[in-house]
Amino acid sequence: MSGHSKWANIKFKKGKADALKGKVNTKIGREITIAVQMGGSDPTGNMRLKLALSKARANNIPKDNIKRAIAKGEGAADASNYEEITYEGYGPSGVAIMVSALTDNRNRTAADIRHVFSKGGNMGETGCVNWMFKSKGIFAIAKEGAPSEDDLMGIVLDAGAEDMQTTDDGYEITTTPEEYDGVEKALADNNIEVAMSEISLVPDTTVALDGEAAQKVQRMIDDFEEMDDVQDVYTNADLPEEEE
How far is Cα 31 from Cα 1, in angstroms, rounded to an integer? Predict the structure, then answer.
């Protein structure tokens, strides 16, 4: 669920630890429900739903859970009680943090978010850090079963991708939000399996941390992600693999 340096140090893993699985299921289910209510149950014309379903697949959400979430969005009125709010601030070592929440009680959520920020940073005003981030489409492709690096790069660049980076495990493809659909279609047309895909907030530059500093940032991120109202967390901290 988190956007924190996930794409700078990408891991081709699906889902969360078992202890967090139920919470992840609930959050993704809520996202699907609200996406359906806002834009209908056809993902073809509903980007928010398309991304929520992609997230559900990446986290191995059971199909029955997905169907129930869609049905709830089609027929239930309680989804309208939720509003989407983004909180901004600074964490340990002055790193920028953005927290995306879906809440039915903004006073409660704001107080909870502010409390976590206070443990090693501070919550700021709207706009204090969002200028450091850009909305980007992201695709993760595992090396196993993928075309050669040159072939894959040719496919995605021809489809409108901005960039492709190679990691030890695979490839990270970056697009503008507007070119997301075109790249997604090109990958599908070439039978290239996508490990993860989403439109995420990506920092323009990152702050490399290690040791105790990285641990403090990771603890704050974990505290945010433990909150029921929080959907995603983004930061410009570049954390070492052992801290993620």
Answer: 11
Please give the average pLDDT of every successive group of 10 residues along the chain, which has 244 residues: 42 43 79 86 86 82 89 70 89 95 92 96 95 92 90 96 88 92 93 87 91 93 91 89 54
Tokens of 200: 């995420």
Domains (ranges, CATH) in the chain? 18-80 (1.10.10.200), 83-131+205-243 (3.30.70.980), 133-203 (3.30.70.980)
| Amino acid 3: pLDDT | 45
SS3 of the chain: the string is CCCCCCCCCCCCCCCCCHHHHHHHHHHHHHHHHHHHHHHCCCHHHCHHHHHHHHHHHHCCCCHHHHHHHHHHHHHCCHHHHCEEEEEEEECHHHCEEEEEEEECCHHHHHHHHHHHHCCCCEECCCCCCHHHEEEEEEEEEECCCCCCHHHHHHHHHHCCCCEEEECCCEEEEEECHHHHHHHHHHHHHCCCCCCEEEEEEEECCCEECCHHHHHHHHHHHHHHHHCCCEEEEEECEECCHHHC
The answer to whether 157 touches 164, Cβ cutoff 8 Å, is yes
For 121, other C-beta atoms within 10 Å of its C-beta total 20
Q: What is the dihedral of CA 58, 202, 166, 142, to 10 degrees?
A: 0
